[in-house]
Amino acid sequence: MKLRAERTEFADAISWATRTVAARVTLPALSGVLLEAADGRLTCRATDLEVAAEISIPVEIEQPGRVLLPGRLLAQLVARFPDAPVQLEGESDQVEITCGRATFHVRGMQVEDFPTLAAPAEDAPEGVLKADAFSRLVSQVARAASTDEGRPVLTGVQLDAADGTLTAAATDSYRLAVRSVSFDEAVEGLALVPARSLQEAAKAASEVGGTVTLILEPGQVSFLFGDRRLTTKLIEGSFPNYRALLPDAHETSVVVERAALAEALQRVAIVAMGQANTPVTLHFGDGSVDLQASNQEMGDAAEALPAEIDGEGLAISFNPAFLLAGLDATGTERIRIELRDGLKPAVLKPQAADEDDRIDDLTYLLMPMRVS
Questions:
Q1: Predicted local confidence at residue 138, as pLDDT
Q2: CA separation for the pair 233, 155 (Å, rounded)
Q3: Which residues of the chain fall short of a pLDDT of 70?
Q4: Do 34 and 14 form a contact (C-beta atoms < 8 A)?
Q5: Is residue 340 located within the same domain as residue 275?
Q6: Domain ranges, residue 143
Q7: Is residue 289 part of a domain?
Q8: CB-based contacts of 198: which residues, under 8 Å, 6+ apart?
Q9: What pLDDT is stored for residue 184 in this prediction?
């Protein structure tokens, strides 16, 4: 292999590929980045066997070839390259990398050991949506996915593409987040995607911008961002029927300033620190919401906020971290909390400031905590 690349493009390509390089691997080749030079382009590939990253950039090729280089070492070198063209020359056992007056000799790895990446089928159906909308959807929903590997299906986010809309849902059995966005070019399909993989795709979407192409296939899903691609395996199993959990009615609705409630919740919840499963209780009534928390070892705290309440007053207790996550997910100045009673799930939704205000189609359902 012998080629010349622009430093910025080469650095971006290595940075993109190495996002899937695992810190600890059972197969040494998984710690590497495969560089393949052919037909005027350099393709960089990496995988951790769950997520695969690929990017292609234009380069000047004198001699085509393939090499497998240590990913983290390569990323650290590239991040410190001077502002000059990059030249690569060598075979699979050793590659010389030159940038300006800096020269590095990097020992290669066995190319044959690098696993084959599953590229999307050419005739696979594709959907297109705006990158910022996709990134926001994932940030709002994926936070509700479980981190408990004992229940794999709950560590994923279900993507349901139907009727021109992409609906994402995640739950850890204590909370549920559901959000929908419209496709620019629609596709249909159902996929249970690992939350970590989806968050990586969302991060890429926010970095690259423009649009995201979604390719749904049996066993895998791919996200395309121009010359960049992330492909991830799907989680096997059936996602819970979350639609059956969404209440179709409520007895009390509360509209409150989101930032004020979040700040008050953070202050009151301080006394719960250091004691597991200590809830914060919200009392709704008489035009206010009163927050209370107590800890036998540290004391108690209370704060009251004005609120618009429609319906009977009631008290309900929540895990403060889960409630804060829901408040953060809505993102609007005001939020609506829909309640039935103190023992049934509450629903948080963005609240429009006026009739012309466009808000996200987000539902954040939160199970209450029982207080003795």
A1: 97
A2: 13
A3: 22-24, 273-276, 355-356, 372
A4: no
A5: yes
A6: 126-243
A7: yes
A8: 138, 142, 157, 159, 232
A9: 96
